[in-house]
Design a protein that fits this description.
The protein has 106 residues and is an alpha+beta fold. It has a single domain, classed as SH3 type barrels (Roll). The chain is built from 1 helix and 7 strands; from the N terminus they run αβββββββ. A 5-stranded antiparallel sheet has the order 6-5-4-1-7, with no helix packed on it. The chain has a two-stranded antiparallel sheet with strand order 2-3. Strand 4 and strand 5 form a beta hairpin. The protein starts with a helix and ends in a 16-residue tail after the last strand.
Length: 106
């Protein structure tokens, strides 16, 4: 193997390791597994304003009784009702449970 190929390989492995480590350090990113999840303006089930689609990633910002505050990659912030939490998974594909999920520890 020549030196440029070796250096390229080492750099590629370093980047891959860094990305994997960053994902593990930020477990508060969830994926929508249902067709969509509705976001609410407030912790009030009646105030729906936006639908997040299947496969979209959401960063968890806060937790209130019965709700999670999330942000989409485009910067839209809203609240997801407790009954819709089952429509989300962690990046590792694990179910999210409001009662005992380390993803939601704040």
């Amino acid at each position: 193997m020549n030196l440029p190929s070796f250096i390229s390989s080492v750099l590629l492995l370093t980047v891959i390791s860094f990305v994997a480590h960053a994902q593990q350090k930020n477990p508060r990113v969830l994926t929508v597994k249902a067709d969509y999840v509705e976001l609410h303006h407030y912790t009030d089930a009646a105030q729906k304003f936006y639908a997040v689609e299947k496969g979209d990633k959401l960063q968890v910002l806060a937790r209130r009784v019965g709700f999670l505050q999330v942000q989409t990659p485009s910067g839209i912030k809203g609240w997801i009702a407790e009954q819709d939490i089952s429509a989300l998974t962690t990046l590792a594909g694990q179910e999210v449970n409001l009662d005992n999920s380390s993803v939601l520890d704040f």
